[in-house]
Amino acid sequence: MPAPSAADFARLRKLSAIVDIDARQSKSIEEVFTGRELTTIPVGTAADVETAFAKARAAQVAWAQRPVKERCAVIERYRDLVAGNRDFLMDVAQAETGKARSAAQEELVDIMLNARYYAREAAKLLGSKRVQGLLPGIVKTVVNHHPKGVVGVISPWNYPMTLSISDSIPALLAGNAVVVKPDSQTPYCTLANAELLYQAGLPRDLFAVVPGPGSVVGTAIVQHCDYLMFTGSTATGRSLAEQCGRRLIGFSAELGGKNPMIVTKGADLDVAAKAATRACFSNAGQLCISIERIYVERDIADEFTAKFGERVRAMKLSTAYDFTADMGSLISEDQVKAVSGHVDDAKVKGAKVIAGGNARPDIGPLFFEPTVLTDVTDEMECGRNETFGPLVSIYPVDSVEEAIEKANDTEYGLNASVWAGSKSEGEAIAARLQAGTVNVDEGYALAFGSTAAPMGGMKASGIGRRHGADGILKYTESQTVSTARVLNLDPPLGISQTFWQKALTPMIQAVQKLPGR
After folding, report:
1. 338-342: which pairs have CB atoms within 8 A and are 24 or more residues apart?
2. 494-510 pLDDT tens trace
């Protein structure tokens, strides 16, 4: 498929009309592969955010009153529109981020999985539930879930569709309005999906997109929202958590990672080496859950390193808008500098380059080769710090025990991968890793794609979870309603207060001995 022409992106340029702000300035959006201007985007202000929240609050009241099944029908229609517009959406994702088409397709698959899961499960997850009351037959207790109000979503540039839209879908289905601040480099990835949400029947004021700098638009969203969903760096996550804490509002965040892979004796090294190229270099390694550390038992370390290095050196880097590329571009000059800085620092301090290690301006202005290092130490910048780029280090270890210990020896705990001689061995290792998701015989996609299961980070890799029941209930306020069906806790007629109080504890004890209590 050839690169989209100016005519192909006419629709993209028209999407700026969706941005309902009185912008006084605009920002150029460039095609990452070439650096040419695609279009411009209005830049929002704090006043624009305030207006968006006012409209969202008004729209949210009516939306919350609609039956959950009606909300779900809107999301189902949106899912169908995503499938029907997949080529255009992948074009937009590639143009704004520079990623290979396979990584762009991951975004659409994720959106479709989340839309289908929550559209099918929302009514059940959000429905009122009868729970055990204080006294069986006498007290009826029900738990309800009410929407928070207006949810703020601050999304990053690396997976700009997934991390703005998939996080908004459960918030909307829970009865909330949403105000999104997309990253300044990738606003049209969000706007292209907003257009489809509106076509599916979502009220326009209910889902607002306000582009602009984090220091202005992001700060204003935190000041106005009733709950904040953030994906980005750990440093920024800590700052936002403090701000949300001062306002006493809920906060969920997926943050940084230094994700490990463990390969044991008995693992199929050909399969593991092939899968590791995707696990490490999908989206040029600009993926919170990609692998940056590989621990291999020493007896097989040389063989694995040779097989993996050969596959990495054979990877195809390309600007193609088709599925022929194994890896695309980095997104910015800052990312190129960060990756090259880590590689150069490691080389100076004694690391060995097995594959890659160089920028590739001959392909595109922001390309960098997928890079594999050995002999990496903690004194090197890439030793313990997240690179967030196409760089992975291999570490021989003397035992599985050492691999587990070293995999857990990090401030992060987002994702991990295990390759062992059997599924049972892999699962046993996985259970001992301090990571929110662990994939056995896969790098990251199986756990992330299991939308019925919670996904998120331990330690400095985040707080809260997306996906599963947690991913929608976090956008609600739980409410307990208990009804005295026969009598309340005052003494019944004819019973003295003293006798009643003395009898209360034995009565509770007797109730607790009943079956099911």
Report:
1. 338/387, 338/388, 338/389, 339/285, 339/368, 339/371, 339/387, 339/389, 339/390, 339/391, 340/368, 341/381, 342/380, 342/381, 342/382, 342/385, 342/387, 342/389, 342/391
2. 999 999 999 989 988 88
